[in-house]
Batch of 2 targets.
Target 1
Amino acid sequence: MKQEHYNEPIDIVLPWVDGSDPVWLEEKRNYAIAAGKVDVSSNIASRWRDWDNLQYIFRGIEKFMPWVRTVHFVTVGHLPAWLNTEAEHLHIVRHTDFIPESYLPTFNSNTIELNIHRIPGLAEHFINFNDDMFVIGVTQPEDFFSPSGLPRDMAVLSPAPVFREVMCNVEVNNLGIINEYFSIEDVKKNRSKWCSTLYGKMVLRTMIFSHFHTILGIFEQHIPFSYNKSTFEEVWKKEGPFLDTICRNKFRTRDDVNEWLMRQWQIMSGSFEPRRKNFGQLFDLSDDNTEALKDLQNPGKLRLVCLNDTPAVTDFERVKEEINTALDKLLPEKSSFEL
């Protein structure tokens, strides 16, 4: 039987900020003063450190995802010195090009990502990256979207983590909306997608937590997620006033929701198809990154990784050199996105 493929345009959205720009830092500082108080957990140094490896994201996309139509590079105005602004598949998108003026300027990644569906020319089917996410193996369009255009994902019930930091509050806020519109019955209705053998032992979590009356959490892989633009439009139509209030927060707050709400909405509505668990992997970096370095040197079945900066990285320059050396060995050749 001939294998079906997804043949419609697929784009990538890649937001980035130059956290070392003194003008931007001064503006950020002034707005923080005006705000009175900025949540410490959303404004720590590790959120703004420059790893100087953005070029490897573009190299990975070009080498391992040559079928991507356009990379929408989202920036407040910063551009890396090495970026080829005339690259064929590059669309430079400034905040002022798509974020409503009433939300600007913003230093809140949630505001940026909740509005990415407004990017001019964005395809209905797109993949949202962060600037710490890398493609390390050959991919096909159907790895991200089914032949019918449904996003590929992994649906697993798993309680949301609870710590005294802003991101955990955001996850709980997402779930508040999800539980208002969906229930465990929606999981049972799409049991074959929730209990796919592609998830391995993770299925056991769904089996356990589907006995509760509410959705206690949906496991987040923290890798590039596939989206239908129409999902963003649907959620904005239903929750517009609430999202409008959130997007006016200049910095991340404990009242926010984020783009994972859109992912969870797709999953709960059954608008997705299963994908294997080991397609991508999150690595929380520290001073010992043996596992991450091993997978960069020998990806195996892995295709995507997120190399998440954390306060556990205390020897920053050494770790940065180790990670970037491994990325350069994997992706040594410049891409068309570079001068």
Note: Strands lie at 10-15, 71-75, 90-94, 125-128, 133-135, 152-153, 225-228, 273-274, 280-284, 304-308.
Target 2
Amino acid sequence: MKRSWKQSVKRQTAVCLLGMAVLGMAACGGKENMDNNLITSEKEDKRVVRLFSPMEKTDPDAENIARSASDKTVIMAEEELDISVEYVTYTAEDYQEKTYDDVAIDRVRNNMDDLYLLNPDAIQKLAEEEKLMDLSGLDSAKNLREVVKAANVVDGKLVAIPQEVAAYGLFVNKEMFDDCELELPETPEDFLECCRVFKEKGIDTPVGANRWWLETFVLAQAYADLYNGGNTEKEIAALNSGESKYSDYMRPGFEFLQELIDRGYIDVEKAIVSEAIEAEGPDFLAQKTPIVMAYWGAANTDTAYGNPDFELQVIGFPSSRGQMPVISMTGIGIGVGSEHAEDAMRTLEVMTSDEALQVYAETNKVISPSKNVEVDCISALKPLNDRIEENVFVLGSNAGMKLEQWGNTCLIVRKLLEGATVDECMEEFDRLQEEASSD
């Protein structure tokens, strides 16, 4: 049971985070064949740095009009440092036994590459094993937002740096709210009232949900005070020591979800089997469902919610402190056993410089990890962006917490959807906390 649970956590995190963080990658929740699915590029005439990631690019010098934002920053490093970045890529098309996280952790432990794009749970595990280098000395580290430091500092060491901050929020059809004379919800009570009115107006399912992202409601309510009340370090220390219980933080959010289920505001049977966006997206775009949840980038692309036939607004999740963004992120780390450690550090320095992150942010229209880089967001994202600029947010992943948050919360929410009681879900958090404390 223990092994199966942790395997599921790693699979969930890979799907939800890396699946949306890098353009052009294969799905990250799949399986792996070490011979067929790891693709390397050969380059012998320059100094070489090896980068392991889900990105598809076998020839660093290949002409590619559709290079991703991350590719552009790699090119900047190659040109400035006169090195060659060899991509080692993971593909999941055969859906075999190992997830991206499984393979990444194994490669770091065995010093197989230099740079690694990692999910939060992998960052936390490898940092605890002291397998990742401290990046605090990089010039780019000085420019990081506090939210990035909070998510990627373990035992005082900055072990990974992301190229974007992934913010989750509620995507709402403002016109449907206006038609029902409803204000956009601030608190859980506001949200329930909006759903009640929509239901009375004949909308069968006010909230479009999938099997991955309902944990955002829980995280927003659980940690609104922890991250915004001025005692963050003290409260996390109490959780890590066992003095405080994660279940006490989580209970209000789970009770809120249970009420949504009991009142029929969520289609539970559909949510359990639905992939993100694919299931709830069509009803949202067809104006049958007024509310869905998604990440920042989904508002910027025509393949998701970037071109609706109505006024789209993206706001934070309901909490005791008002609309609350939930933030999570991947990060690039360097293995302590890196064969080309010095060049890897210099490469990451360029890739995470303000100049490179400006290029990245402008290409992907995302929130930059650098406090010095800003990109104008579309009007639909302004409510969510305003809260983040005010430093009002909740972290969905925090490397300083002994108990991994994003994947574990998601899986326990799914237990609730499958019929577990709130008390049973809280018992699972208590069990996991005890397990994490004994590791």
Note: Confidence is low (pLDDT under 50) at residues 1-16, 19-43, 56-67.
